[in-house]
Amino acid sequence: MTNPLTFPILHRLADGGFHSGEALAAHFKVSRSTVWNAIKHAETLGVEIFSVRGKGYRLSQPLNLLRADKISAALGPASIPVQLFVHDQLDSTNRWLMQQAANGAAHLSCAVTSHQTHGRGRRGRVWQSALGNSLTFSLLWRFESGAAALSGLSLAVGLALGQAFAEMGVPVALKWPNDVLVEYRKLAGILIELQGDMEGPSAAVIGVGINLRLPQRMLAQIDQAAIDLQSLKAEPVDANVVLGVVLKHMLQVITRFEQEGFAALVADWQAMHVYHQQAVRLLMPDATERHGVVAGVAEDGSLLVTTEAGEQRFTSGEISLRKAMA
Ligand code: ATP
Ligand code: BTN
Questions:
Q1: What pLDDT, on a 0 to 100 scale, did the predictor assign at position 319?
Q2: Are 98 and 75 in contact (CB under 8 A)?
């Protein structure tokens, strides 16, 4: 169910003050019952709204919506040449941007939404997010090289996120190929989808999901340990500001990746790897397990593991990495 008035009303309520049904109805040139319907719809999205007789409607707690003006302010003057597409609601920023890319969208187009309803994870999995509590966005990067040269890209993006969180005062670890963890709990995920030839040129839609706040009902829907940025920060976390910081680091790191390849980033990446030189299990697509000690990552982003059979290389795709049983 969609209601075209829900988000316009939420943007007005986002100032934290009371807004009477009458004033909202007059502003949007609709009836008071249409306003009431939109308020009820907002509540189905998880937003709690007080209704006080004689005063009107008010949010029970601040709602962190994305706004183009706030993101632009966070990005700073023209130094970050992204083209922003800010949506209140989208099924998936990756799906939307893949479609735009197929229709010729420009390099560095960035789609971001306050409410992603059908977030995609890797391998057909679901990425959970909740209105006002998650940062979900995708960045389109057009490469002259073909898709074959992009095998280390998802690791490069993980490194960019690691550096962005460090700037925000939150040290994180990476888990090959591209999970962002704090205390072994997942803070952010990366999904890269490619278009184009193996020889080139190619386009990458780089999707990033970050948990800003994890309400209980959302935690209950995630089938692995998860953590949110707000629990790691004293001051309130604003999605618009986080996006600005993350995009800045993505631009720096991916530009370096484009010019020098992942080889230039290997040492920095390994320094953040949660299992570097640790004993691990590799869960293979055929449900078998391999065991070994992580020796590092190669210049193409594959994982190097010392096993009984010597050093082996694993490419990401279908493999899941786990700590070895004690
Ligand atoms: P791997 O298979 O490499 O071990 P993974 O188990 O994290 O990684 P991915 O495919 O990378 O799997 O990510 C999808 C998974 O992420 C989902 O199956 C779910 O367990 C988890 N997930 C979904 N939403 C969230 C979220 N908001 N925060 C943390 N984790 C999430
Ligand atoms: C994973 O860990 O499985 C990757 C999760 C990636 C989620 C992000 S949220 C923004 C973008 N749009 C999507 O549908 N997925 C990615």
A1: 86
A2: no
Of 303, 252, 309, 299, nearest to 280 by C-alpha is 303
Write out the two tokens for 148.
């074959």
Q: Is there an atom of ligand 2 within 6 Å of 275 CB?
A: no
**pLDDT the model gives residue 2:** 77
DSSP conformation class of 285: T
Per-residue pLDDT, 148: 85
As given in the structure block, the two tokens for residue 75 are 């990005």
CA of 20 to the centre of ligand 2 (A): 38
Q: Which amino acid is at 279?
A: A
35, with CB counted inside 10 A (0-12, 13-18, 19+), is buried
Whether ligand 2 lies within 6 angstroms of the CB of 138 is answered as yes
The four Cα atoms 262, 266, 271, 274 give a dihedral, to 10 degrees, of: 70
CA 20/CA 65 separation, integer angstroms: 21
Ligand 1 binding pocket includes 316 (Cβ within 6 Å): no
List, as one string, the DSSP characters of 73-130. Answer: HHH-SSSS--EEEEEEEES-HHHHHHHHHHTTPPTTEEEEEEEESSEE-GGG-EE---
Task: Give the end-to-end CA distance of the chain in Å, rounded to a whole number.
Answer: 49
Ranges of residues in the chain whose predicted pLDDT is under 70:
1, 78-79, 317
Q: What is the DSSP string of 206-259?
A: EEEEEES---HHHHTT-SS-B--SGGG-SSPP-HHHHHHHHHHHHHHHHHHHHH
Q: 152 near 145, Cβ under 8 Å?
A: no
User: Ligand 2 center to residue 96 CA distance, Å?
Assistant: 12
The model's pTM? 0.96
Please give the Cα distance from 139 to 144 (Å, whole number). Answer: 16
Residue 158 CB less than 6 A away from ligand 1? no
- Sheet hosting strand 279-283, strand order edge to edge: 310-314, 303-307, 289-297, 279-283, 320-323
Give CA torsion, residues 274, 279, 284, 290, to 10 deg.
Answer: 170
Q: How far is the CA of 187 from the centre of ligand 1 (A)?
A: 10
Ligand nearest to the CA of 135: 2
